[in-house]
Amino acid sequence: MLDPTRNKFHPTLLAALSLGLAGPATAATHELAPVADAYVVSDYATVNYGDEKDLFVHAGSTTKRTYLRFDLPALAAGEVLAGVSLQLSYAQGGNEGSSIALHHVTDDSWLESAITWSNRPDYDAAALDSQTIFLGHAMMTFNLPLSALAADQDGSLSLLLKLSDEGISDTASFYSKEAINFPGNYGPAAMLTLNTAPIPEPETWGLMLTGLGLVGWAARRRG
After folding, report:
1. How many angstroms separate the first and last alpha carbons of the chain?
2. Domain ranges in the chain?
3. What region, left, alpha or beta, does residue 184 occupy, with left being phi > 0 and alpha being psi -120 to 50 degrees?
4. Residues 6+ apart with CB under 8 A from 32
5. Which of 31, 82, 129, 165 has a CB 3.0–4.6 Å from the CB of 197, allowing a cystine?
6. Which 8-state DSSP code applies to residue 4?
7. Is the CATH code 2.60.120 the one for domain 27-198?
8. For 6-64, what is each residue's pLDDT tens digit?
C-alpha cells in the first residue's frame, strides 16, 4: 500500500519556499524612536511621570521602573528579521557594575500620559537581556532575542527597564523622548534598531528542493 504522506512536503519548508518566492529583498535597518516612554514610582503610586526628560530605574527607599513602547513596521516581501537592539542615552547615576535588566511587557495598551505604579502592566519574569553600568560610557545597548518579536504580533512592542536586583540601593537614569523639549544639551531618546536580511532567492530554494528530492528518492530506494 502506498504511504499517503510520502510525497508531501514538510509544512515548514512550504512556508519558507512561499516567502522566498515573494520577491527579492535587500538587507535594511529600521531605527525606531519610542511612541511612548515613562517611569513609575512605587511611593507615588497614582502619579504619572510621562512628560519628564529622564527615565529612571531605582531601588532602595522606593522603586522606579521605566516603560517604553515602539510601533513596529511591516517587513517588506522577501525580508526577514536578523537582529534587534535597544540603545539608550545614559544620563547619570548608578554604581559601577550595577546591572540593568530589560523585560518584555505583556500589555501594549498603556498610555504615556496615564501610566502609574498602580495601573502599570505586567512583564515577563525572564529578562530579554541585562547590561552593566560602566561609568563614563554615554550609551547602553541591549540585544533582544528574535523570539521577543516573533511572539508579539500586534504591531507594538512594550519593554520594561529595571534594576536586575531591586534588593540593593541604586539609581540610574536615561534620556526620554521629551528631553529635546528641555533647555540644555541632552542626549538622544531611546532607539530600537531592527536589522533585516533578504530571504534566499528562489534559485536557492530550488537547489534545496532538488537536494531534498534526491534524499527522498534514496530513502524510497532503501525502503
Report:
1. 13
2. 8-25+199-223, 27-198
3. left
4. 70, 71, 72, 73, 191, 192, 193, 194
5. 82
6. T
7. yes
8. 433 333 333 333 444 444 567 889 999 999 999 999 999 999 999 999 999 999 999 99
